[in-house]
Structures are given as C-alpha cells and as structure tokens.
Design brief:
This protein is of the alpha+beta class and 271 residues long. It has helices spanning 83-94, 113-131, 135-161, 166-174, 178-181, 185-189, 196-207, 211-226, 234-240, 246-257, 261-267, and strands at 5-7, 14-17, 21-26, 29-36, 38-43, 46-51, 54-58, 63-68, 75-81, 107-110.
Length: 271
C-alpha cells in the first residue's frame, strides 16, 4: 500500500483547486470551501460527498484525497493554518487557550448561498494578494478569514454539544434560503429524511410550536425585510414569500403585525 505524501511546509495561506488530488496529509490545519460542483473527499478512510456551499475542517495529520465529479465545473478553495495561527484565532474568539476539541473525523457544515458567495469573494481577494506576494496586506485578510470560518465551526460544535437534532438544524439553516422560504411547508419537510406528518410531530414535541406556525413567522420576517426595499411592490413581495394570492398574504401579514403590509410600509418604515 502506497504511503500518503506528507506535506510539511505551509508556503502560502491558500490555494484554488480544480483537479483530483491523491492521498496525502498535512502538517497544518486545512479548511476546504466548495464553491462550484461536487467532489468525493475521503478522509481517514471515510468518504464525504461535498457540494457547493459545504465547508470542511481537517486536522493536521488527517489523511485525505478527493475525486472531482466534473473537473470542468469545479472550484474549491483551501485555507491553511499553522497551529500557532489556529490557536491564536481561537483564543481571540473565546478568550481560552488551545482550541476546541476536534473529533477524529472532519467537521462538515453547509452554508447558505449568500454566505458561500461572500466567502468566495474573500478567498478571491486573498488569492489576488497572495499572487502579488503582498504579505503585509495578505496576512490581515487571511487572519480575519480564518477567524470568521473558525467561528462557524465553534458554533457548529456548540450546537452538537447541546445535542441539537440534525433535522432541526437542517430546518433552521435551510429556511434562510430564498427558494425554501418561497415554498410550502411540505417542501420544507423535504430538506430532512422525514415525512411531512412525522416532521410536524417531531417539531411540535421539540419546540412546543407547530411547524406551520414557525414557517409562517419566517415568511413574515422575510417580508418585513423586503418591505424596506421600495423598488418592490406588495404583490412582488407576496410572490417572493410564496403566497398564492395577495389577499392571502395581506391577511396573514395583518394577523402577525396588526397592520396590512402597505400600511406597515407607510407608517412604520415611512416609505
């Protein structure tokens, strides 16, 4: 059996990846962001199918390789961190020495599209500075990016330590996506492996609230943000939030806000 290559030098802060990579391991932490396409990452013998919006954290000495589904439609950014930088940003975020306990397998989380795009822009800027060999400007960008991403993983581990069910986290994160908020509660249930009826029972037992009520409140919260955009009329906002008619949207909005949307926009937002 071929021994995996051991990468010992961290010559740069990051890389943009477009190709398959054979088995190897690093002497530093590695954070992977999938921006486009899909790939199977095998880490310590376990395979993970990652797609756009997935971000993975691996420890030093984790053995991994990846096979890209379509090399012509794939973009992955890798961020590298020495132990000093990794523990330094952890101390800055938490005030504690060391770093959060990491499991034997990598942590994988899913980001909403807007966050994925924002991180992609930061990676592109860091890549530009790195190519310019402008270390003085690149390092602050690198450290801020590392701290932000590590904050995501700290929050992820906190949720896991509180035994928050995966299905609940999937719902809470998924409902922030525009295509989900514009759908129905039945479509929302498809984000999980449960049927609509069973998920409603789970949600009620776990939160004390009906799933349909939670979903409706999220729709109205989204509508409240959209009302700040004076370029959108009320009918457009109703459609974006997934209502089948303006009257249905208006009745629902008034039930939660005590004002119809046009009056809310006029009296509260002064638009």
């Amino acid at each position: 059996m071929t021994k995996p290559a051991y990468v010992t030098k961290n010559k740069q802060y990051m890389s943009a990846i477009f190709w398959d990579t054979p088995s190897h391991r690093h002497a530093f932490y590695e954070i992977i962001l999938i921006c486009e396409g899909e790939a199977v990452h095998t880490v310590n013998g376990s395979a993970y199918r990652l797609k756009a919006g997935n971000i993975m954290l691996m420890r030093p000495d984790d053995v991994h390789e990846y096979k890209i589904a379509d090399v012509h439609n794939y973009l992955q950014y890798d961020l590298y961190a020495t132990d000093m930088d990794f523990t330094g940003t952890y101390r800055m975020l938490t005030g504690e020495d060391g770093h959060a306990p990491l499991s034997s397998q990598p942590i994988v989380i899913s980001l909403e599209q807007s966050m994925t795009e924002a991180l992609r822009d930061r990676f592109k800027y860091l890549d530009y500075l790195t190519c310019q060999t402008d270390a003085g400007r690149a390092r602050p960008i690198y450290l801020s990016l590392l701290a932000f991403i590590q904050g995501l993983f700290i929050a992820e581990q906190t949720d896991r330590n509180r035994n928050i069910p995966d299905w609940y986290r999937t719902i809470v994160l998924g409902i922030t996506r525009p295509e989900v908020i514009a759908g129905t509660v039945e479509q929302l249930a498809r984000l999980t492996n449960f049927s609509h009826g069973y998920l409603c029972k789970l949600f009620k037992a776990y939160t004390g609230e009906r799933l349909i009520d939670y979903f409706t409140k999220c729709k109205i919260d989204y509508a409240l943000r959209l009302l700040n955009n004076k370029d959108l009329n009320i009918l457009e906002i109703s459609n974006i939030c997934g209502y089948d008619s303006l009257s249905h949207f208006t009745r629902t909005f008034k039930r939660y806000c005590n004002l119809p949307p046009h009056e809310y926009r006029k009296k509260v937002l002064n638009l």
